[in-house]
Amino acid sequence: MTLDTEVSSLKQVPLFREVEPSRLKLLAFTSERVNFESGQRFFSQGDESDAAFLILEGSAAVSLDGPQGAVQLALLGADALVGEMGILADQPRSATVIAESAVTALRIDRGVFLELLAQFPQIGIAVMRELALRLEQTNRQLASRPGGDR
Description:
The protein is α+β, with helices and mostly antiparallel strands. Helices cover 39% and strands 29% of the residues.
């Protein structure tokens, strides 16, 4: 895939719509396109938070290891960003992410991701909105479970 095609793909992602093409070209150049087969792990809970992944095609399940085994928190599809929480919190991975189908993703190195946030406040705001939505969804899931209102 050419650099221009990568930039075109990035322009379709809501998170990057406001970013100028020259910056998207730099992002595409400094990031790595990766493919995951169905069932393959992006990363595991507890791993080092060294990169974020932007899902371009396919879907991935986010799960958390609990006392009774893994609990699926979300199923993410195209244009979803995953792995950013550990980078922002400077903590190990808080969940495991596994491809549900064949996935094509852009692996954005930790340093590149943090630089993007520093240079483009609108990306930081979009990431915060997404994290707030995920937290709200998780809260609703927990509240709807038996014993969730305690």
